[in-house]
Amino acid sequence: MLAKIAFRNVKRQAGNYLVYYLTVSLTIALIFAFSNLVFGKELWNHPAALPQMRAGLSAISMLIGLVEAFVLGYASSYLLGLRKQEFGMYLTLGMNRRQILLIFFCEEMLLCAASLITGILGGLLLYQGLMALLTGLMDMPFAFSAYSPQGLLFTVLLVGGMFLLSFIVCSLYLRRATIYRLLFAGRRVERGERRPLLWFVIFLAALAALVTACLWFHRELESLVTDFDTPPDGLFGSLLLGVVSVLFLYMGLGRSAAGLLLRRPKFCCRGTAVFILRQLSGKLKTNALMAGILALLLLLALAATDISFAQYAYYDAILERNFPFAVLGTLEEEEEPAISFSEAEQILAAYTPVTSRVSYTLYAGGTSALSEAYLSGERLENGQELQDMLIGESELNRVLAALGEEPVRLDGTYQILSSQQQMESVEFPRISPAWSGKQYPFGGVADLLISLVPDDVMFLVVVPDEALRELSPAWSCCGWQLGNTDFDAAALQEALINPQSAAETGYALSSDYQVREYHRIQGLQSMAVLIVSALYMGLIFVLLALAVLALKTLSGLSGDREKYRILSKIGCGEREQKRTLLWQLGIFFFFPLLLPLLMSVPVTWICVRFVSLAGFPQQAARTAMYGTAAAVVLAAAYGLYFLVSWLIAARQVMVKQM
């Protein structure tokens, strides 16, 4: 009997449950897709995949599970609020609380089963899409991926736990709530703000603070990219100011907008404007802080997506700068090499053809003035003395010619060669070192950003050839270009490992040789995890915001129904009622979205500016495209939820004239 009542209730409340069902199904699809990523074998059997990537996805999956449990609990509490009078009537008619809890439990299980089925079906497609995205970002071939039984089991257990937690929270409320509280809880009246002018001033102050925070953040980011000595404290301060500004901006706007518009007679004379404003006045005041929090979540989702794609574009461009050769070998002159250059070339030839080779020598400058200027007078953590590393002008130009770059011209000066954009901020001009008995003035930082040095050398000092006459060689370097990249980069890097150095340091990849393709794959893995994690988090935050807004809208329909009935009795037709309801729901629904969409422009511009300041203006259009796509996807998801909410509200609220 109770099961029949539960089934009838779900069928009768299908309209109210639609948003809840849609949200839960989408979250289950996300859980299932990510569970298959974590527990599946296709990705992890690939040699490019590293164990830390799997651990990162596992941690993110567990974190998102907690967030989704909160989403489900929040949605269930709103659905419970919609049916308080129904449960109060059950108690009045003689049902005990145990029977009501059983009815509610059966309803939850029906929804859980339906959501689980549709969520897993959607997750089947979503998983293939995520695999295509991951393999594309990691430059791996994509093939149809098999599904993991462990992933399915994990999804079922996690969803079951989420529904159980939601049921426990709701059952605690039903056990303690009185009949009066259940029957008359929906009669609370939302009153408008009495001091709208004060809150409008707060809104203007918050808007000015938000603009200041954006300008402050941009200035600090620019300084951080171009200057080594800039601390990151300013970035955190600007972000904190931005968060506080957004909250006060929404509180000020929500508590002042409707009240100020109601004081304008010309505006209030337009159709049902007074009715719409009075409907919104109390709602916006009551939910202003909630709207600010949701706006922050949406803004965080957009910013995380933009920043992750900007970082991906930046890494893709900086790879050639940091690794100009397909393989670079660096051997110290004072040590016996574990693998000589000739032996390394034989190893390379076993994996892929070698197309060219160029050798060059780095010299110890005998001074550390330039390195100390770079480190602001600090020493290395292990106490090792600093040493400036030099290369001759003609030798560098020979290397640059092999790389297809323009030669440098010193004209009796010295220049700094590095792959880091911030070198312009170091105070080298004050230093005029002497090499081989002659002083040389500073000739600037080389326009070319490139790295030709071992990992523990920070930059190269390019000097005229005569400056090296009395200096001794410190490093012998050799760079190779390979015929193709279709080889096992991880196996090649492992074959070039220095066994003695690895045993001493305990670091498995200690090597005198750096394979560009191996580092590219490693970097792409990190970027892939970053992007997929940002998208995953962003989707969850968007679903949270949309579910809260939709359910908040639907929870007030019982009071709106009576008001629209009165509107119909005074002569307002069905078409005018729909237009009024559309404006009322649209303003309330899109109120939290307003700022994130507007802020998507400066956020995208800051990401574009970051990529340009880092020396890659050609990646600006690509970064802007990613930011625009993220904003469009957010607006589309918002529109879908709003359409569903409006159709449900129109069916329940509209009153046809007889």
What distinguishing features does this structure have?
66% helix; two-stranded antiparallel ribbon; 21 helices; eight-stranded mixed sheet; alpha+beta; 658 residues
Account of the protein in words:
By secondary structure, the chain is α+β, with helices and mostly antiparallel strands. Among the domains are: 1-188, no CATH class; 327-484, no CATH class. It has helices spanning 2-12, 14-39, 51-82, 84-92, 97-137, 149-176, 179-184, 196-226, 233-262, 265-268, 273-286, 288-322, 341-351, 369-374, 393-403, 489-495, 499-505, 516-555, 557-569, 574-613, 620-653; strands at residues 327-332, 354-364, 389-392, 414-417, 434-435, 438-439, 442-445, 460-463, 473-482, 513-515. The strands form 2 sheets. Strands 7-4-8-3-2-9-1-10 form an 8-stranded mixed sheet. It has a two-stranded antiparallel ribbon with strand order 5-6. A hairpin with a 2-residue loop joins strand 5 (434-435) and strand 6. 39% of the residues are buried.
Largest sheet: 8 strands, mixed
Percent of sequence in beta strands: 5-15%
| Spatial ordering of strands, largest sheet | 7-4-8-3-2-9-1-10
Low-confidence stretches: 377-384, 502-508
Rough outline: elongated
Please, what is the average pLDDT? 77
Rg calculated over all Cα atoms: 32 Å
Structure summary, number of beta strands: 10
Separation of the first and last Cα atoms: 39 Å
The percent of residues in helical segments reads 55-70%
Structural class: alpha+beta
Number of helices: 21
